Amino acid sequence: KAGVTQTPRYLIKTRGQQVTLSCSPISGHRSVSWYQQTPGQGLQFLFEYFSETQRNKGNFPGRFSGRQFSNSRSEMNVSTLELGDSALYLCASSSPPGEQYFGPGTRLTVT
Amino acid sequence: EDQVTQSPEALRLQEGESSSLNCSYTVSGLRGLFWYRQDPGKGPEFLFTLYSAGEEKEKERLKATLTKKESFLHITAPKPEDSATYLCAVQAPTGTASKLTFGTGTRLQVTL
User: Fold this and answer.
1) Which of A70, B35, B49, B62 is the most exposed place for a label (fewest CB within 10 A)?
2) Which among A35, A56, A99 has the least Cβ separation from residue B46?
């Protein structure tokens, strides 16, 4: 069974730009969660989607948003990028909510 | 607010030298406690889920245990390939949704 895939793997953006990251969950998984990982803060929960609905949201500003499509694929968007948004963005899928399986992540660098 | 504290932050072991990693947690209504392994530049790899105090799970040289306040990851006779960051996370029920709260991890280095 194919694992969670994330694209792109690496991204370099400048401050003020916006970025869209994509996640394809494991086949049959309907829940997708997003996390931000930085050396200082570790892994922090961004939001979770299930059946195209956001079910839970972490403590991040409104510049961070996401959506889920009918095929369970998910995207997250960060607008007006700041230097502090540089991080590894991880997507995880599960079904039913339980063990979450992570993708390889997208490394975002904001300059 | 859910909290997870892992200790030690870093651990260096010689091959064959057994040890334990600690994960202390505070959560309102534990749904599950998870252990992950993360190699540099990669996403966390799922290891174990524990649901209730007294539960134990094993996989190769790893054994995870759970009490009402903490979990231990015991590593028996580690090998250099066990070197990684080990992350602990708790899942608390929030309605029908779920999210994981992670600790900051223990960086394990196993040398020859």
Assistant:
1) A70
2) A99
